Amino acid sequence: MSVNWIEQALKRLITDKAVLVTVRSTQGSVPRGPGTQMVVFAQGEQGTIGGGHLELQALAHARFVLAGQSERLDLRQVLGPSLGQCCGGAVDLVFERVSPEDLPRMRTLLLLPRTPLALFGGGHVGKALIHTLAPLPFAVRWIDSRDEIFPADVPSGVDCEHSNPVQAAVADLAPGSRVLIMSFSHAEDLDIVIACMKRQRSQGDLPFVGLIGSQTKWATFRHRLEDRGFSAKEIAHITCPIGVPGIAGKEPEVIAVAVAAQLLQML
User: Fold this and answer.
1) pLDDT number for residue 1
2) How far is CA 246 from CA 127, 213, 243, in A?
3) pTM of the prediction?
4) How is 86-114 classified by DSSP, letter by letter?
5) CB–CB of 206/177 below 8 Å?
6) CA–CA separation, 182 and 167 (whole Å)
7) Which of 44, 144, 184, 216 fits a disulfide with 122 by CB distance 3.0 to 4.6 angstroms?
8) Exposure string over 159-194, b if 16+ CB within 10 A, otherwise e
9) Would the pLDDT of 266 be above 70?
10) At a CB cut-off of 8 Å and minimum separation 6, what does 71 contact?
11) pLDDT tens digits along 86-114
């Protein structure tokens, strides 16, 4: 679920009334699953329940409810020829009027827990990744050893942290953190990898540790880790190179998409 649309919806709910549309249940092939939500205002909406004519009908009905022109708070839509959609399934929708008074409850309802992610490195790929990850369900902690490395336009929901030595930040990462390592130097990268492996050895709570780099870089790192007494099983916990296979581009934005896709596969 995109974090951005939720924040924008909550901001509007400070002053505006709306209708919360929720996919209550589904049958067969449908665009989005149960629990999917969108917030509909008199002008505009945030979120999506799948687009197409299904969403157009839902938007129209939500605005009837908002205007007091309909008291019907549930709607069943069959995704067939009558809607111009060929999914073949059916969707049951629930409509709920919400107002600024409901804001605390809506915060709890919409702001679902996000997976903690630590990104070490504020270089070109790090900057591209931050903007790619921002609308995704991750709570990002962005860490670098250099002063004034973080840009002014950091997306909301990203916590920036200066840590020197940079590997010291590994000790207090949230349990379950996914870790991405792409600092400005191979020496720092190795220090962070070693800190992660020591934590994994003692706590076993970093399910993914990814290191940017080539096969050649990883071969060098692997030998250095062996020299420091790490076992083959421990070393195998490190993913290098990172990113889903089959994406060959080296541009920062391309790498960011490949890495984000890899992370989403593990949720």
Assistant:
1) 41
2) 22, 16, 9
3) 0.77
4) ----EEEEEEEEE-GGGHHHHHHHH----
5) yes
6) 12
7) 144
8) eeeeeeebbebbeebeeebbbbbbbbeeebbbbbbb
9) yes
10) 65
11) 556 889 999 999 999 999 999 888 877 78
